[in-house]
């Protein structure tokens, strides 16, 4: 079985998480039109005006840490330290006005796909994001910027860079799985930028920590079903 999670642990009870407001107002020039947006994290924003007003978005080419709670862990980082960095990614993205384009295509969650080339470089070089390619070739210039960020110990690379980072978890039996007999986790290779599916047949519990290994390096993420990330939040996100 490919990519079976190595460690499945229940996260111990921790002190209450003190959330700061990680969203941030900003401006982009989308398809030539200046547009007010609200950054909800470092790789997505909601459009506040214009043709696509009210639409959620997903920026292409990079991925930031999840900002809905302390869910990431690797190396010497704690989940709460990485959560603080994730919360800072939205205001970091909002600090300038970026030129962006869209061909109006959407991802599987119905979010408008957006490309902001200079923003992508900005987030990767400052260590707030990782190169992230689900399909197709990876931009070698972005990979070079990521290696420079790792060398500089910028942002999330301050305590070193594992060869692979878990970026999303999916449990067997999720509501939209349509009876599938396998699920998958996605792991981004920090050397190549490829975000690869790792299939498994495990049914995760809410707040369960799942770890994946990449060539001897381990990274972990706490599983929280999508429907519990923002409403009826479990104790591990409080």
Write up what this structure looks like.
The structure is a single chain. With 238 residues, the chain is of the alpha+beta class. It has one domain: Beta Barrel (OB fold (Dihydrolipoamide Acetyltransferase, E2P)), CATH 2.40.50. Helices cover 15% and strands 30% of the residues. It is built from three helices and 15 strands. The strands form five sheets. Strands 1-14-15-7 form a four-stranded antiparallel sheet. Strands 4-3-2-8 form a four-stranded mixed sheet. It has a three-stranded antiparallel sheet with strand order 11-12-13, with no helix packed on it. α2 (117-125) runs parallel beside α3. It is globular. Residues 1-18 have low confidence and may be disordered.
Please describe the structure with a list of short key phrases separated by commas or semicolons.
3 helices, alpha+beta, 4-stranded antiparallel sheet, globular, 15 strands, 238 residues, disordered N terminus
What amount of the residues lies in strands?
A: 25-35%
In DSSP terms (H or I, runs of 4 or more residues), the helix count works out at 3
Give the N-terminus to C-terminus distance in angstroms.
34 Å
Low-confidence stretches at least 5 residues in length (pLDDT < 50)? 1-18
General form = globular
Class based on secondary structure composition and strand pairing: alpha+beta
